[in-house]
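Components:
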Amino acid sequence: MVNTEVTLSGVKLSNPVIPASGTFGYGYEFSELYDINILGALSFKGTTKEPRFGNPTPRIAEAEGGLLNAVGLQNPGIDKVISEELPRLRKVFRKPIVANISGFSVDEYAYCCERIDKEEQVEIIEVNISCPNVHNGGMSFGTTTEGASEVARAVKSVTKKPVYMKLSPNVTDIAAIAEACVNAGADGISLINTLMGMRLDLRRRKPIIANVTGGLSGPCVFPVALRMVWQVYERVKVPIMGLGGVSSAEDVIEMMLAGATAVQVGAANLKDPYASMNIINRLPQVMEKLGIDNLSEIIGGAH
Amino acid sequence: MKKGIFTVVSNREIAKNTYEMVLSGDTSAITAPGQFVNIELQGFYLRRPISVCDVERSSLTIIYKVVGKGTEYMSRLSAGAELDLLSGLGNGYSLGESGERPLLIGGGAGVPPMYELCKVLLKEGKKPVVIMGFNTEDEIFYRERFEALGAETVVATADGSVGVKGFVTDGMDTVGEYSYVYVCGPEPMLKAVYDKSVTSGQFSFEERMGCGFGACMGCTCKTKYGSKRICKDGPVLFKEEIIW
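Structure:
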């Protein structure tokens, strides 16, 4: 029997696979298909202080080996997430919840994290400073070391739960941003959010996505994500949640060898609702094939 | 929703750039007319959402227009090809409100879901009137199929080559009193029927989708009752809740 357990800042996961925020809703659609307690943890839809409709449609465009989205942080707001979504999720999910929090000001990040701090099943807070689809917020905090550390510091002062900063790949030096977050007290790093891109409609000669640009995800970004996980692992000593195009058990192991302690699965859930389950089910078999007994021992093993 | 492998039984061009594909497989997740399937195509990352035209216990029919690379790929599939489908997606039309003589109004690629709806309503003893709108004669499909079901059928063509000259709304002028409207077609057509219809009704919307099953929030629209996902809470919206 191989051991798939990993530990993120003291939080034990039965396996390293976590559906990425925004690709799994609050789990209900998937819990109709399979027992989602098979997951290592679950990162729920990015939540802000106020409810948000998000961007106008179209919000989606296809790409070779992936897709672009510009959903724009549609969510019911922190009050409803706590009063309605979390109690519903709790009924079908007993594993650790990663609360994904976003904001438009440092105060808003801190406010939401303080609120979510009281929720017992939330074991990790993932702070999204990298949404490419909202203006004057999200990614604007994640593209400078000052902005990133300011948010990290503010959030750390209001919660005792482990804080993971979710970083944008749309920067010149992601390792410098990661280091700034860790120096400000962050317990871990999630990377990468989507890569900013766009597509045009040839008949209309206009952008397909109403927001003009969107975030690229899917297997086409996996090598970029892997490279960034590698670079961040070389720079900081905190655990990393690696994500970006992960679609198979082999991808999970590759991410871990590059330095990830846990691995998030995003776009793959949208293409195949069973993707996370299939990756988890195949993981032991791939470990055996590669001679891995204990998954946590391979973290950063390629360095 | 169910995920399963379906086998292409037939795939043929039935009108200009318009194909009818019959697929065999487990259709048990399909519970209402107006629902759709989301089809994985080799070499394309996103699935293609296509409305269900007709459904039997172990087969279903879809009709699609070739508009891009994905549907072009579909048009080249032959009998025996296997496709991965998510089936039973969306809410579909609700039948309880139809009254005795509902109008079933479909425009172009919006005609197909009216076929299954028409069958079900006829089975319930209703007297549906089908209004089909096309641009030109060579785009017309399924007219004789609707007539064979025994439904009163009106065709409107924009160029006047067949039937009523004009749009489906011109077809509405020719049918007398009706109890309800069921509508599917391009958004300007939905809006025109919404404005013209004197009864309540249900309107099926289209949007670019990520997942097709409610997870990604890619296709959300505003309604009078809050945000709705076209793929999961729709594609059918009641007239009373629509915001244009």
